[in-house]
């Protein structure tokens, strides 16, 4: 029966623990702000600059797969360094660089744009 009786210690604990957590979080925020304010900031001459040729822009090109070198019958498999740069990129610029356009009456989506059936 004594364990079931309300205790003033429990109600004090339910108030003190959240207040202590709040003080701990605010103290961490304050300490982090102080440390960050002491760090040196980069000078303007240390900031990145544009390259001499100006801004670099995105390029678009159509790519096509590069042919994998064939191994002659009875020959040994080629090692990566013997593939002539194939390991760096498995594609090359395509012959046709114009963008493909949709054909008339075709939306280009999976439905095809035709009449519904």
TrEMBL record:
Record field: compositional bias (Gly residues): 108-117
Positions of transmembrane segments: 12-33
Taxonomy, superkingdom: Bacteria
Positions with biased composition (Basic and acidic residues): 57-70
Pfam family, one: DUF6479
Keywords attached to this entry: Membrane, Transmembrane, Transmembrane helix
Region annotation (Disordered) ranges: 37-117
Feature: compositional bias, Polar residues: 88-97
Name of the protein in question: Secreted protein
């Amino acid at each position: 029966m004594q364990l079931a009786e309300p205790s003033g210690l429990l109600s004090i604990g339910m108030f003190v623990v959240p207040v202590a957590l709040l003080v701990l979080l605010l103290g961490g925020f304050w300490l982090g702000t102080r440390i960050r304010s002491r760090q040196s900031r980069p000078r303007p001459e240390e900031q990145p600059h544009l390259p001499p040729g100006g801004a670099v822009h995105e390029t678009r090109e159509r790519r096509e797969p590069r042919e994998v070198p064939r191994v002659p019958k009875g020959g040994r498999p080629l090692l990566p360094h013997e593939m002539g740069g194939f390991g760096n990129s498995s594609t090359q610029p395509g012959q046709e660089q114009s963008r493909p356009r949709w054909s008339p009456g075709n939306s280009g989506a999976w439905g095809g744009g035709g009449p519904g059936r």
